[in-house]
Structure prediction request, 394 residues.
Amino acid sequence: MAIDGRPLISGAGIAGLTLAICLKEYGEDPVVVEQSPELPDQGYMMDFYGSGWDVADRMGLVDKLRALRYPIDKLQFVNSEGKPYTSVPIKRMKRALNGKYVYVRRPDLLRILYERAKALGVEVRFGTEVTDLRERVTHVDVMFDDSSTGEYALVFGADGVHSGIRQVMFGDESQFARFLGAYVAAFHVEDHDLPFRRTAQIHEEPNRVAFYYPLSERSLDATFVFRLDEVDVPPDHQLSFVRRAFKGAGWIAEALLEAYKGKAPLYFDTLTQIAIPRWSRGRVTLLGDACGCLSLLAGQGSHMAMAGAYLLAQELRRYDGNHSAAFAAYEAMMKPEIARRQEDAAAFAKIFIPTTQSKPWVRKLVTKTVFNPLLLPLTMGAFGSKSILESDED
Ligand SMILES: Cc1cc2nc3c(=O)[nH]c(=O)nc-3n(C[C@H](O)[C@H](O)[C@H](O)COP(=O)(O)OP(=O)(O)OC[C@H]3O[C@@H](n4cnc5c(N)ncnc54)[C@H](O)[C@@H]3O)c2cc1C
Prediction:
């Protein structure tokens, strides 16, 4: 063991579980606290490749990812009647990424990581969160919401875009949040009779875009992204807010939102990035979306969360538990990579959702061009297909 005491990780998400696994494999004894009462069983669909793939490969998890099966052979851009105008075989995506590509739902990735963490004996405490931290010379005193306390050698804030650890250490989120002018909402629908033939679909209209992913013949995941000014939306208004934003939308948007049985979307948030000048202070550091949220438009938030966690653990081992040196090296490696991707995603946000001025024929031409088999490897290059671990010596 290189770290002098137990490390505490706040957040059993993609970054937190990856870090816990890596630290445990290096002989440390991390404990993870997670706000939610259990792992989620529903969530949004993601593209998985690049740095995330590379980390999963090094953790021996690629076979589990490949074993996930969704009935999706094609990605299609469809018009208001559901008629495709651009069709991309998934095999073409795989070829462009040398076979290192899968669709994965966030809950599936979490389950795969959690099972590995449990098999290694990592302690995960659900329904628990940190309320306060006090840094001492040799450790951090931590207070939890159940009034218990603990002494930890290091504390890692892997608790997502609205990180509680970041709030305690660095202050209010509003200082670091960059609103990209849109909202995101995700849904899961069972027992539908909508016509999906092994095809993921994207339907775009001025100021709104919908993504549909079949999971079985009768169930699907949907993600809606829509442009609106930032307003306060209480949880019990989120569903009506999304329904209003998609009123009159083409294809199946309105039918799906009507068919949705939940009281609120599975996921609802503003499209926001987090840019924070320092990621670490003393014995505490941040990782994943907590310090470098890219937004879904980068298409690689989970990859960078896993890569950051992996590199952070590696630096702690390289510096034999000297956290100051390890945190500085981790930040020096990751921060420029995150900043560059954030700039790209913020620029993409301006064109990703059509405006009322957008010309449909131009957008059709662009989608056909960027998914052309010859250009697709270049397109994916702009979305992080090259792993940031490729130059790594280990
Ligand atoms: C709709 C959508 C689509 C996306 N698509 C893609 C994609 O195609 N490809 C891709 O790579 N990325 C995608 N992303 C981004 C990706 O999901 C995130 O970047 C990634 O989940 C970040 O991982 P994380 O571990 O930092 O945070 P999270 O996965 O958000 O995990 C944070 C964890 O911390 C917990 N937590 C929160 N607060 C506290 C607290 N106070 N105390 C304890 N625990 C707490 C949360 O419950 C959660 O379990 C998408 C995101 C969205 C919203």
In short: The longest helix spans residues 323-352. The chain has a mean pLDDT of 95.
